[in-house]
Design a protein that fits this description.
242 residues, YD repeat-containing protein, Porin
């Protein structure tokens, strides 16, 4: 249920799947793009601020976080993430514009992704040296409902609110959601879930509760994640709107 390097930076990326879902305008349908996101951890003094810039298509071009700067470069068949550290992550795209492989400039490990005929991500296979670790994804009523990997099963529950297309949460080390779920490249992983998450629970008894606050335009202005182990975090988000 954790995590690849996909979670490191942010962007609102847009894709047309093989069934023409998740159109490029989806992430800016209310003419608002995420400008900055500040977070505070619940159990310690950890905090930070992330700022974003975009191109004319609403795609993030730079992510500035606590003095580091990451850049995204887009082409028809791949996306390059140029990390502040010098690492380059390559995301290979299929003909429908979906990510089918993630690879790295400094080591041979990779992650391959498989989609079903309906356009949903159903499997990822992470190759680490001589080992391959498979994660399977299942859906109910248009929402990702279970994630199963070598560590167990994660169940995901939703409220009735529609998912916010311009919302990004890159704090993957602080929650148990899959790397791509609210990450910068979520629209490059096929169909996204229709509703907002209310709770997640794994088969070992761990849970996370998700509480949202919205602004007058319907943007998610704040998110509080309460974990059963006492951890969690709070996000405060600001948007630029036309």
């Amino acid at each position: 249920m954790k995590k690849s390097i996909l979670l490191l930076p942010l962007l609102v990326l847009l894709i047309t799947s093989c069934k023409k879902n998740n159109k490029p305008t989806d992430a800016i349908k209310n003419n608002c793009l995420l400008a900055e996101s500040s977070y505070k951890l619940k159990l310690n003094a950890g905090s930070g601020l992330t700022q974003y810039t975009y191109d004319q298509q609403g795609r993030v071009t730079t992510v500035k976080y606590n003095g580091t700067l990451d850049q995204y470069v887009y082409s028809n068949d791949q996306i390059l993430l140029k990390k502040n550290s010098g690492l380059i992550v390559t995301y290979k795209l299929d003909a429908a514009g979906r990510i089918i492989r993630e690879s790295y400039s400094d080591h041979p490990d990779k992650i391959d992704f498989i989609y079903n005929a309906e356009g949903y991500l159903i499997q990822s296979a992470e190759t680490l040296g001589n080992y391959t670790f498979v994660t399977k994804y299942a859906y109910t009523n248009g929402n990702l409902s279970t994630v199963e990997d070598r560590r167990g099963i994660l169940n995901i529950f939703y409220n009735n609110d529609a998912a916010a297309n311009n919302f990004i949460d890159d704090h993957g080390d602080e929650n148990e959601l899959p790397a791509h779920y609210n990450g910068p490249l979520k629209y490059y992983f096929g169909k996204t879930s229709k509703n907002l998450i209310s709770k997640i629970a794994d088969n070992h008894g761990y849970t996370e509760e998700y509480i949202y606050q919205k602004d007058t335009r319907g943007n998610i202005a704040a998110l509080q994640v309460n974990a059963s182990n006492g951890k969690g975090y709070v996000l405060q988000l600001k948007y630029n709107c036309d």
